[in-house]
Amino acid sequence: MRVRKFFERLFNWELWNFHILYAPIAPVWLWYCIKSRSLWFFTPSNPNITFGGFEGEGKKEMYQLLPAEITPQTIYVKPGISFHDLKKRVDASGIRYPFVVKPDVGMKGILFRVIEDDAQLKKYHAHIPFKYIIQEKIDFPVEVSVFYYRYPWQSTGVVSGFIYKELLQVTGDGKSTLKQLINQHERARYRFEEMELKHGHDFDKILETGEVFYLSFAGNHNRGARFTNLHHEINPALVAVFDKLSQDTQFYYGRYDIKTNSIEDLKNGKHFIVLEYNGAGAEPNHIYDCGMSLGKAYKTILQHWRALYEISRYNAKQGHAYWSYRRGKKYLRAAKHHFRILEKFDE
């Protein structure tokens, strides 16, 4: 079994480790650093987001840039407050179970949870060491990701990627246990240790025919979500929605994660909620699950890196200075330390 999984990973580039996947094109990134005379050439890309949104930015600063009506109702929680006070805040907000919790500064779905009751909230609050958010669970049926960039000297941007997300899940057949269904699943079987940690207490459960069991509520590729390419749905109306959003916030490059009632509603700029958006560090995740060759995936990534470089260079000339080496190194070191701690608590 392990040998088979090894070779399946070896010949499926979408399952490769991030550093292995990006190593062959890393010299291009280095060349942009040299041309910019800054290791942090991307920092002016999104002037209103810390570090250009490359890594370590808080969700709070992103939500504050967007209209309240298109963001989830959110409470920001500091660790250490009493559970009694926390409950009072939650009750006063009107947010009801089930709701979502996640670190204010997080990535890759780390410590993202759906909380069903007081007991789960109390456990989460007692263990998480950093500021986190409590957020209403958005029940719109369609979750999508939109990659958008706009050159600052132009009024119209580009929607370069548009994908539909399906959360990692298994469906019962009335006879197989959850453990068996996970081992049979084309994605979940590669995450068996993680699944055992999170769902091991349910491994012997037999799901009824048609019963859906969500293995993860995070719509991230590295959390096992499946992506479907919606490139054929991109049109001027969709671009106009994100032009308006991004011009108001000086957001020039990155990816929006959105829930909406329907694709048509999103194109018409109604009935959608921005779950979050990611700046310079956002991966063009439409390279995944679309039958794309590795060569074409690299070409797509390099096209986005060039856009990021050109946007950043222009903004730098307009007075949005590149971060100094010392400032960026200190910030990135602190961010990586933060994430290492979060990963330990996620386990």
Task: Describe the model.
With 347 residues, the protein is α+β, with helices and mostly antiparallel strands. Helix content is 38%, strand content 17%. The chain contains twelve helices and eleven strands. The strands form three sheets. Strands 9-6-5-10-11 form a five-stranded antiparallel beta sheet. It has a four-stranded antiparallel beta sheet with strand order 1-4-2-3, with helices on one face. The protein is globular.
How far is it from the N-terminal to the C-terminal residue, by CA? Answer: 24 Å
Tell me the number of strands.
11
Estimated structural class: alpha+beta
> What order do the SSEs take from the amino end to the carboxyl end, as H and E?
HHHHEHEEHEEEEHHEEHEHEHH
Q: What is the topology, as strand order, of the major beta sheet?
A: 9-6-5-10-11
Beta-strand residue percentage: 15-25%
Largest sheet: 5 strands, antiparallel
Helix content: 25-40%
Output the number of helix runs: 12
Mean pLDDT: 89
Spans with pLDDT under 50 lasting ≥5 residues?
A: none
Give the radius of gyration: 21 Å
User: What is the overall shape?
Assistant: globular
Task: Write a short abstract of this structure.
This protein has helices at 2-10, 18-22, 26-36, 59-63, 83-93, 118-127, 178-184, 192-199, 236-249, 263-267, 294-317, 325-346, and strands at residues 74-77, 99-103, 113-115, 132-136, 142-149, 158-166, 169-171, 212-214, 226-229, 253-260, 272-278. The radius of gyration is 21 Å and the shape is globular.
